[in-house]
């Protein structure tokens, strides 16, 4: 699901970071337009990544009502009907109130009237059936300050026949920044809630508890204290989590008093309602934290670009000085890389073996998860129940969708590790001995012509990364240029499978009501048929791309050195007067770039100190 543009949660270092990025891009423009463009991309990215907050809890705990209160829209999300299995509602920032639905007819999303949200996202209260069974999720946007840097995600209640809702919710938490756990002020945590919460901290770091409807239950403090005792005993990692007692009803009354001009009474009632305290916590602990991570990444990117350009300018200075040692070192480096290239076949064999092992591991994990789902469904069939045959197909789909998402996450992590390992092997010195150590400056050489790099596409980007910054940059390029597209391949295959097959499976199973076990076997068979080829395709794509990236990296690095050597020889033949002028111009650029690099390093230190302060506060 997409996140709209937004700000940086009011972080105190947002403005200095934005100014640094603008100044850096401006300084790089006359030297390296591609590097300047990458810095501007980082600046734009600061406005396009929101912190995800998944709202979880048992059915009828007031999750939707809480979101409505947080955004001051009492009728925004449906509160009198259950959210359908597998359907998420995401509320984010936008210039105006609008809604979009993602379903089989419109996988990229299509607009719907906001007043129709319940029809697409909730079960029909009368029939308890989906009115639009092909819906995947609904996106809602509002011009609310709280949502500047936040996306609030409403999920189905975690209690269900096969625990499908819980698994879907846990899969959503894998990619969230925080969980908002909604519990009831009139009753203690149920055993199912405690068991679920014990698994939450494995998925997300920030967990906030919200005790709802405190206006209806005078003994809510005793309930809260008892809930804390239960967590300390059964989920001790959540024993110190923050709790926020709230009342959406009192918050709405406060808004009415404010509209009538009773400002003091409204302020007292708002303080009792607790909604504003929860909003502030979301700003400080979630949006502010996410903003910090985005700012740190942007500063690091700017500092990397500056250091690479500074290295290239310093190399140019050496060339202008007729440095004979540099010429010898460049030739030695070229010979070393020739040896590395000749050993590429061994590297490719190892890479292919890693992907074969990964395919085996992920197939095993998927089959184990599918066996667990089958066993749970079989137990439910034995137990029976009035609505078993009506609910079984949707619950199987929910559990399988969660399993697919979990394996997808494992795939992304494993490919990231393979990419990092591949980068380290590509940059290792393949020679058995070295008479003279290569000077440090040789480790960072000028980039190839940007137009040429652009012409060769993804491989050219990886080639540049290896040549300019070694292991770290290549790993980053592999992760962003290869892992992300492959994750899209897997996620796309999964989404297409569930959207296209959900109705077919449901109809087929309904027609075979007399044979629930046959339905289950049919479902498990289809899952085992669909997953292996999808996984094999994704792994083949990323393996081929990594091989191509490695080959282009080594070839491009050697070409870089040859071009640098040619530039050195041309500079040696140039007249002294022109060399003096060129040296002065380069020195001026180095001075300006050095000042920017120092600003970036200082800002990076300040962000690191903020992170330490945050950890101490937590």
Notes on the protein architecture:
It is a single chain. The chain is α/β, with parallel strands linked by helices and 618 residues long. It has two domains: 51-273, 3-Layer(aba) Sandwich (Rossmann fold); 344-573. It has helices spanning 14-28, 33-45, 63-70, 117-121, 164-173, 191-200, 220-234, 248-259, 263-273, 275-320, 324-342, 344-383, 388-427, 450-455, 457-469, 471-511, 516-573, 576-617; strands spanning 51-56, 88-93, 98-103, 110-112, 135-142, 150-154, 178-184, 206-212, 242-245. A nine-stranded mixed sheet has the order 4-3-5-2-6-1-7-8-9, with helices on both faces. It is globular. The model is unreliable at 1-9 and 427-499 (pLDDT under 50).
Show unreliable segments. 1-9, 427-499
- Describe the largest sheet: 9 strands, mixed
Mean pLDDT: 75
Total domain modules: 2
Q: By helix and strand content, what is the structural category?
A: alpha/beta
Tell me what portion of residues adopts beta-strand conformation. 5-15%
Shape: globular
Helix content range of the residues, please?
55-70%
Return Rg in Å: 29 Å
Largest beta sheet: strand ordering: 4-3-5-2-6-1-7-8-9
Tally of alpha and pi helices:
18
Order of helices and strands: HHEHEEEHEEHEHEHEHHHHHHHHHHH
* Strand segment count: 9
Kindly report how far apart the N and C termini lie: 30 Å
């Amino acid at each position: 699901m997409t996140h709209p543009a937004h700000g940086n949660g009011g972080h105190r270092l947002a403005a200095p970071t934005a100014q640094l990025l603008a100044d850096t891009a401006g300084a790089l423009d006359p030297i390296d337009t591609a590097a300047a463009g990458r810095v501007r991309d980082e600046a734009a990215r600061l406005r396009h990544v929101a912190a995800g907050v998944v709202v979880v809890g048992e059915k009828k705990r007031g999750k939707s009502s809480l979101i409505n209160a947080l955004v001051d829209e009492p009728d925004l999300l449906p509160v009198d009907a259950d959210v359908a299995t597998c359907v998420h509602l995401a509320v984010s920032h936008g210039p105006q109130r609008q809604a979009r639905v993602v379903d089989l007819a419109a996988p990229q999303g299509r607009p719907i009237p906001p007043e129709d949200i319940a029809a697409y996202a909730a079960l029909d209260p009368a029939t308890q059936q989906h009115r639009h069974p092909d819906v995947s999720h609904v996106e809602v946007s509002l011009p609310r300050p709280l949502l500047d840097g936040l996306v609030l995600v409403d999920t189905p209640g975690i209690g269900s026949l096969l625990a499908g809702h819980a698994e879907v919710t846990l899969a959503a938490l894998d990619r969230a920044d925080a969980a908002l756990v909604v519990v009831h002020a009139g009753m203690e945590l149920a055993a199912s809630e405690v068991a679920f919460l014990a698994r939450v901290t494995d998925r997300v770091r920030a967990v906030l508890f919200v005790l709802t409807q405190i206006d209806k239950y005078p003994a809510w403090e005793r309930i809260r204290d008892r809930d804390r005792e239960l967590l300390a005993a059964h989920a001790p990692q959540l024993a110190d989590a923050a709790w926020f007692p709230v009342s959406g009803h009192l918050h709405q009354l406060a808004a009415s008093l404010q509209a009538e001009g009773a400002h003091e009474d409204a302020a007292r009632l708002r303080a009792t309602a607790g909604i504003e305290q929860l909003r502030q916590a979301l700003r400080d602990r979630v949006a502010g934290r996410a903003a910090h991570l985005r700012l740190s990444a942007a500063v690091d990117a700017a500092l990397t670009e500056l250091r690479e350009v500074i290295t290239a300018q310093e190399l140019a200075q050496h060339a202008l000085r007729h440095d004979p040692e540099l010429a010898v070192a460049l030739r030695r480096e070229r010979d070393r890389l020739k040896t590395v290239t000749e050993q590429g076949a061994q590297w490719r064999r190892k890479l292919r073996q890693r992907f074969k092992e990964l395919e085996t591991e992920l197939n095993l994990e998927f089959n184990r998860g599918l066996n667990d789902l089958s066993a749970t469904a079989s137990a439910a069939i034995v137990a029976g129940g009035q609505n078993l045959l009506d609910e079984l197909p949707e619950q199987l789909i929910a559990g399988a969708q969660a399993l697919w998402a979990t394996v997808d996450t494992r795939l992304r992590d494993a490919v990231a590790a393979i990419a990092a390992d591949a980068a380290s092997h590509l940059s290792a010195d393949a020679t058995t001995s070295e008479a003279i150590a290569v000077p440090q400056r040789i480790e960072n050489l000028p980039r190839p012509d940007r137009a040429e790099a652009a012409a060769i596409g993804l491989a050219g980007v990886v080639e540049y990364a290896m040549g300019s910054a070694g292991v770290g940059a290549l790993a980053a390029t592999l992760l962003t240029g290869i892992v992300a597209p492959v994750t899209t391949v897997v996620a796309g295959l999964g989404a297409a499978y569930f959207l296209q097959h959900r109705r077919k499976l449901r109809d087929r199973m309904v027609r075979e009501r007399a044979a629930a076990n046959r339905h289950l076997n049919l479902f498990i068979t289809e899952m085992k048929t669909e997953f292996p080829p999808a996984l094999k395709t994704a792994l083949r794509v990323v393996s081929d791309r990594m091989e191509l990236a490695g080959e282009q990296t080594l070839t491009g690095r050697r070409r870089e050195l040859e071009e640098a050597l040619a530039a050195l020889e041309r500079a040696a033949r140039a007249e002294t007067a022109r060399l003096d002028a060129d040296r002065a111009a380069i020195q001026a650029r180095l001075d300006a770039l050095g000042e920017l690099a120092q600003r970036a390093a200082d800002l990076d230190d300040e962000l690191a100190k903020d992170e330490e302060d945050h950890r101490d506060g937590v």
